[in-house]
Structure formats: structure tokens, C-alpha cells
TrEMBL record:
Organism: Lentzea roselyniae
Signal peptide coordinates: none
InterPro entries: Plipid/glycerol_acylTrfase
Region of interest (Disordered), residue spans: 235-257
Family matches, as SUPFAM superfamilies: Glycerol-3-phosphate (1)-acyltransferase
Keyword Membrane part of the UniProt annotation: no
Pfam hit, one: Acyltransferase
The protein, known as: Lysophospholipid acyltransferase family protein
PANTHER family cross-referenced by the UniProt entry: 1-ACYL-SN-GLYCEROL-3-PHOSPHATE ACYLTRANSFERASE
Alphabetic keyword roster: Acyltransferase, Transferase
Listed Basic and acidic residues bias regions: 235-245
Molecular function (Gene Ontology), one example: acyltransferase activity
Segments of skewed composition (Polar residues): 246-257
Domain Phospholipid/glycerol acyltransferase positions: 39-158
Organism ancestry: Bacteria, Bacillati, Actinomycetota, Actinomycetes, Pseudonocardiales
Length: 257
């Protein structure tokens, strides 16, 4: 499956947008032998900008990610058809069809082509220290069910560019926190750090064995967290950047001791 031209154009625009907003630093890579084969990219989720940063980082190492997106985004006027044309996949996390969505993703991956990027947490972390929250086993189930390798990706810095903002946007004033924080970032030029870790070892686990999906999920989240530690050595406890709009009601079971 080749990358749609429209998506290539959008990714080129995205790279310019990220370069305008801050400085991108990428470490690690995807093993050459995994390129062009079924592959899952599992990342932590720290802010509204980090999908854009993740896309730019992937382009920098020569891969074109597709995303698993909430159904609401794909149903939106104008944006929805555009996202579908780019080859992104649908998942309705609260629907009874989640299993079906995972099956579609595995089938899409088996056909080859571009890897699929996923956020195991399912949402932006609200842990006070911005360590990954518990997350769900969907990524692990896809990996085990399809025998698909998982590359853990750790991100830091994107939270400094765009505020968490509002859960519900009902008018133009609700966009102001996003706009003000982004304009401030253009001036301050935060550093966006993205690390591609080594494939998570899952060969001893099976989709048919009870408890293995949970074990696989734990390994994926621990790998993401371990990759995050060196990206924030000078911020081991709380993030230096304070976002006044972001709740701190979550908790991370993966936080390093």
C-alpha cells in the first residue's frame, strides 16, 4: 500500500509547521529490516501538538505513519473526508465495535505499507509529572493478534508549545488559549524531543494465553517510560513548564522510582 499523495503533501506542510514552532531533536531509529513491513508505533501522549511533532520525527527518519483516530474526527465535515483520504483508520473507543476496529487495523498492517501510530494511553496524560498513564491493552492485542512488532516512542517538549486548553470548543474564545500559547512558542522556540526505541520483546507472549495482553501492554508502557527518562533528566519530578489549563487529576503507574 503506497502513501497517498495528499498525505505526503500534508506531512511536508506539517514538517514546516513544526520547524516554525520549535526545534526538533530525534534519536533512535526503526530497524531497516522492519521498514515496509507491518509495524506499530506506540507513543506517549503529552499534548495537543505531539501528533504533529511525531509526524515530523517520522518523516525525518524516512517513514510515513498512519494514525488510529477517534470516530468523531473522521465524521467531521471537511476534515473527516480528508483524514480518510490520507489512509488513517477509525476506532470508537467506547463502542462495541472496538474489536472490529482492531481487526481492521491488523488487516491493514498485514497488507504492508506504512506503519500505524497509536497512543496506548488513549488521551493526553493528566499525571502531575506528565509520566504516561495506565492506558489500555488495544495496542498489545493488535501486536499479539497479528504478530506485529511494536516500536516504543517517547516524546518530551511538545507540551510547551500548545496548551491543553478546553475539552469542548463552542466559540472563538475557546481557541484563544491554543493560539496564545502557540504564538508564545514561536518566540521561545521550545525543543521537541522524540526517541524511537528498540522493538518491544513480545515473542514469548500469545494472543490466546490469558493475561498475555496485559503483560504485553506493561512491556510497551515500560519501554515508552524508559525512553522518556533521558529526554527529561533535568525534569525528573514535575515538568518545568506550567500549563494553567491542564488538569492534574491523573496518575501514572509507570513513573520511575
Amino acid at each position: 500500500m503506497s502513501t497517498p499523495l495528499f498525505w505526503r503533501v500534508l506531512m511536508a506542510i506539517d514538517r514546516g509547521f513544526v520547524a516554525l514552532t520549535g526545534r526538533l531533536e530525534v534519536s533512535g531509529d526503526v530497524p531497516q529490516e522492519l521498514l515496509g513491513k507491518p509495524l506499530l508505533l506506540a507513543s506517549n501522549h503529552i499534548g495537543n501538538l505531539d501528533p504533529f511533532v511525531l509526524i515530523a520525527a517520522c518523516r525525518k527518519i524516512g517513514i510515513n505513519p498512519r494514525f488510529m483516530l477517534a470516530g468523531g474526527l473522521l465524521d467531521a465535515p471537511i476534515m473527516g473526508p480528508a483524514l480518510k483520504a490520507c489512509g488513517h483508520l477509525r476506532v470508537d473507543r467506547r463502542s462495541a465495535n472496538v474489536g472490529e476496529a482492531m481487526h481492521r487495523a491488523v488487516e491493514a498492517l498485514r497488507k504492508g505499507g506504512d506503519p500505524i501510530a497509536v497512543y496506548p494511553e488513549g488521551k493526553i496524560t493528566l499525571d502531575p509529572g506528565m509520566w504516561p498513564e495506565r492506558g489500555k491493552t488495544g495496542v498489545a492485542r493488535m501486536a499479539l493478534g497479528g504478530g506485529i512488532p511494536v516500536i516504543p516512542i517517547s516524546q518530551w517538549g511538545a507540551h510547551e508549545a500548545v496548551y491543553w486548553g478546553n475539552l469542548h470548543v463552542s466559540g472563538w474564545r475557546d481557541f484563544l488559549p491554543y493560539l496564545r500559547s502557540w504564538l508564545s512558542a514561536i518566540r521561545k522556540r521550545p525543543t521537541f524531543k522524540v526517541h524511537f526505541g528498540k522493538p518491544v520483546e513480545l515473542s514469548d507472549l500469545s494472543a490466546e494465553t490469558m493475561g498475555d495482553a496485559r503483560r504485553a501492554h506493561e512491556r510497551i508502557m515500560i519501554a515508552i517510560t524508559e525512553g522518556l527518562v533521558p529526554l527529561r533528566l533535568d525534569e525528573p519530578d514535575l515538568p518545568r513548564f506550567h500549563d494553567p489549563t491542564r488538569p492534574t487529576t491523573g496518575s501514572s503507574p509507570w513513573r520511575p522510582a
